[in-house]
Every structure is written in structure tokens, then in C-alpha cells.
Predict the 3D structure of the following.
Amino acid sequence: MCHKVLFMIEEKKVGLPVLTLDDLTKSYGAVQALKSVSFEVPEGSVFGILGPNGSGKTTLLSIILDVLKANKGNFLWFGHAGSKEQRKRIGSLLETPNFYHYLSAVNNLKITQSISGRGNIQDIDEVLKKVRLYERRNSRFSTFSLGMKQRLAIAAALLGDPKVLVFDEPTNGLDPVGIAEIRQLIIELRSNGHTIIMASHLLDEVEKVCTHAAILRTGELLITGKVEEILVDDDVVELSASDLDALVNVLKQLSEHVLSNDQLNTVQVTFPKGTAKLDEINAFCYKNGIVLNHLILKKKRLEARFFELTNN
Amino acid sequence: MTQIIKTEWLKIKNYPAFWWVFGITALTYPGINYLFLYAYHDIISQKSTTGQVLKALMGNPFSLPEGWRTMAFFSSFFIYIPAIVVIMLITNEYTYRTNRQNIIDGWSRKNFMTAKMIDVLLLSAIVTVLYVVVVLFIGLSNTNMSAAGKWDLMYYTGLFFLQTFSQLSIAFTVGMLLRKAFIALAIFTFYSIIVETIAVNVLHYKYKSEAGKFLPMEISDRLLTKPVFLGKIDEAAYQQSLEAVKYHVVYSIVLLILTWLFCFWLNNRRDL
């Protein structure tokens, strides 16, 4: 039976949250896309929203950008109810790049600039250079490849250097070089104090760039908090010695959860979070006649944690 | 408001399809009126008895002031051309999903709909200016300069504008509801030319009911009455249609308000 894993990790707040979600609920007919989702996005964080397809990531971002209406609950940007003035301060890329196909890159960004009031004509050139589209600035949007369209959408979001950015699958359609560039860009933005809210199903990406994350499954919030806190829920220690059976017997005195892997010639021992002391384990084994040749506290990868939480 | 108009201009100014259809619109209005003018001159120049009888019956429908009415009537046949522009302007936003991008970038839904209403309003005004230019060109060249009352029927400019704005607003609503340009244009044209015409005549002739005058296009169709020479076929009915114009001004304004209230409400209500 599928059991819910729902818990919130205590958040150390840094200043006023940029975004607060409170009990956000959205249905499409009988399908409940979001179920009472609540969390906060701290200022200066790179906040990853993770979940399998259909988990409600884009629905959530669409609600906070006023494209969809929530059935219940509310959200606050900078401590205030969402409004057009606040959206003007946020650079956003939601789902697919949406531009006028008959207009050039520059003319499309002029419209973004006119509506949002962010940046000026010189800034348009700057952001086009940043995403490597400057040479094609006068080409029609309809002539762009998928990757170029995505880069133009990122340029539109970056226009005027907004302090908050919302990216929905920002690396969609990009080649490996493009993906690495966007990753680098996000890291740069983070170091310049920007807050980035990013929905993605590329767990490797999130693990590399995000400071915080929320994991959704079928509209339900499973966990939220700092990435390193999400990754570690138990301490997993990996050990090895020449006599694996003897090692297992000794370790069973320390923990009930001892698992040996004969193929890798290692033993994994699980301790409650924060209780594994490597020096004490080493000393205990030595005292019991075991000389360790391998001892490491393993960090769980986000991918493993994600599959564990979403029961995939 | 200036920012909204500027943004709409940025969307339109480099849109080739818009300028093509706009160019066709600009040619159609003088074109249709010149066509009827040449036909008229052809008829009255005939030396036959029929030609002379027709000349006596028709008078000169292109001289002022009657030209205001005649050319408003003929011009109104071509509402479908600017309707293409209106339907393109709204359905493009759905096709490219830029309606939602405009909101994401910082417009309210009300801003978006106001922008579209301004588009329709400006297009109606431009078409009306075209009508006035055509009337002045054709009308003044067919009128004796010393003739009195040349400007008496100039109020047809207002009626023409009201009809254009009202019918283009209906075209806009159809585009907004259906979201696909080709389907919206087909439905709008089919409804206006076929469905409503049949409905009005069936109600009138079969059921002896005048309810047809309250159908969406018919409400404003009745603002622009036939030229006088066509009214001579049934003078009593023609007089009645002239009398009804003032009521249809009110009906058209009410319909316009309801149309735009519906559009604003729908845009505000539905997910983008």
C-alpha cells in the first residue's frame, strides 16, 4: 500500500520570503492538480520545484503568475497579494516560449519591455548577447530552432535584471552546451543575490544548482526544505573489511539496519539522522578485532531520494 | 493607456499579414462605391426609354446629401474584410499563447482586453475615415457646388461608425470564443450572411414577427437604411425603416456594451 511521506523540514528563514504559498488548491474538473500546497521561498535561494509529469509543477507556477486561478488558498509575493505590479518585477518563463511568430527577437523583446517596464533598448541587446542570440536579433521568431526559442524566452525573463526569476523547465530543448550555460547562468544569478524559482524534472540539474526544493506528486507536496536536508533523512555509513561476515556481526551490535553487499564487498549501516560518528564506529570495530579498509558517510543522491519519495 | 496603445502598435507595425488585409480594406471601400457609381452612370447614359425612366426614378444617389446614405449602405456590405483583421488580432494571441505571456509580463487581464477593445475601436474609426474620404471624393464630384444641404446627412458618419464598431465587436467575440482564425471567420461569415438573413426573413414572412430585428447583426444593420431610390419599391416600409433608426441606435449601443462586458467577463473568468 502506498503510504504518504509528508513532512516539513524546519526552515531557517533568511529575511522576508519572496513567495509564500498557503493552502493552494486547483482542480480541472474531477482531476485535482494541486492539493493544499503550502511553502515559502526564501530570498536569495534557488528553489527547485520537482515532480514527475502531471505532478502540478506548471499548474503551481501558472497560479503564482496569474495565468490560472486557484480554487482555494492564496499566495503572496514579497508579503503582498499577487498583482500585475509584482509580476512586472519578476522575469518568467512558463512552459513553452510564447512570442509573436512574425516578429524578430528584438521586436518581441520590445513588447516584453513595453509591458513589464523592465530594461530599455540597450538592455535588449545585452540580454540577447547573454543568451547568444545577438547575431540573430533581427530574424523572425518563426525561423528559430527550439533551443533558440528557449534562449529567447530566457532573455525575456532576464530583461532589466529582475531580482526574482521563475523558470519552468529552463533547459528544455537546449543542447548539452546550452544546458551547461544555463546552469552557469543560474549559479551566477544566485551569487548576485537573485531569487530563482525553477520547476524541473532534471534532478541532476536541480541538485547542481538549487539551494532549496519542494517535491510534488500528483498535486501533493511531499517534502520541502534545503536540498542537503532533503537528501539526508538517515545517516548511511559504508564500510569494508577483509572479513565481511565478522564485520556484519560486529555492526549488528550498533544498528539493526545492516546490509551487506557481497559483490561490492561492502556493508551499509543505517543510523538515525545525525547520529553516525565515524571515529566512534572505527574505534568500536577496532576494539572488536576488525580493521576497516573503507569507511564513508554516504550522501544520498537527489535522484534516489526523489524515487523514494514519489514511490517510483 | 498610452503604454497599452504603444504595445499594440509594436505588435501590429511589423505584421505583414495585417498590412495586407488592411490594404485590401483600404481598396475595397472606394472600389465598391466606384463600381456602383460606374454602373449608375452606365444606366443613366442609356438613350433608351428604360434608361431615361430609371434616371428619373433614381435621381443621383451619389450626389450629396444622399451620397452619405448611399455610400454608407454599399460600404457596409464589406464589413467582412476588416472583420478578418479583428479576428486575426485576437486569434493570433491564442495561437501564439501571447495572451498569457502578456499577463505574465505584467498586464492585468483587464489591460489585455482594453488593448483589444482599443484595436477594434481604432479599426472602426479608420474604416469610418475611409468611408468619409470616399463620400467626399465621389459625393463632391457628383454634386453641384451651389447645391444646398450637402452636409444634411453627414450624421450617417456616426451611424456608419456605430454599425462598424458593433459588428466588428461581434466578430471579435466570435474570435475570442473559438480561438482559431479560420473557424472564427467561417462561422462569423456563415452566420452573418446565411443564418441571420434566413432567420430574419423566416420570422418576418412565415411567423409575421419582427423579432428578427433584435438579432446581433440585424440590430446594427438597420442603422444604415437603403438608398432612397431602392426605398421607392415600398415607400411606407422605407419610411418605417427611417423612423426605426433612432431606436436601433439605442439597441446597438446596448448590444455593444453587453458584448464588451461579456468579453471582459469571459477573459477574466477563464484560465489562460
